[in-house]
Specification:
By secondary structure, the chain is an all-alpha fold. The chain has seven helices and no strands.
Length: 132
């Protein structure tokens, strides 16, 4: 069943963010910042969730068009995304568990579970299918 949103509240949020098709890295960064701010909210409204979903779609479309992830093994995709975003293995510990689990996953010694793929997908704003 579709979520019901208040058009006035949603319009006000959109007017503040000004979502549009992303045409530059600067716009990409701006919309990622806005989406992350919405995602950090504890008790988000249906309108905030709808805007976050729209921003995620715009971000994914831009990322897929200008920075496609090559067909690779899951651990290579994790390495690529970490490198692209300037992350270290320690940055993934809260998602995956321990340092050794992250290290094994990043080096390919351990596969990526479905639960980890979902968390990585949310974290990197990509499809979890990339990691399976």
């Amino acid at each position: 069943m579709p979520t019901i949103i208040n058009p006035a509240k949603y319009g006000k949020l959109c007017a503040n963010v000004i979502p549009k098709i992303i045409e530059s890295d600067e716009e990409f960064d701006r919309l990622v910042e806005k989406m992350e701010a919405l995602d950090r909210k504890e008790d988000s409204t249906p309108e905030e969730d709808a805007l976050s979903g729209l921003l995620m779609k715009l971000i994914q479309d831009y990322d897929d068009k200008y920075y496609p992830v090559p067909d690779s093994k899951p651990h290579e995709i994790v390495q690529h995304l970490m490198e692209q975003r300037g992350l270290k293995q320690a940055d993934l510990v809260p998602l995956i568990g321990s340092r050794s689990q992250v290290s094994d996953m990043v080096t390919g010694k351990r596969g990526v579970s479905k639960a980890q793929a979902r968390k990585l997908g949310e974290f990197f704003h990509v499809s979890p299918a990339l990691f399976i």
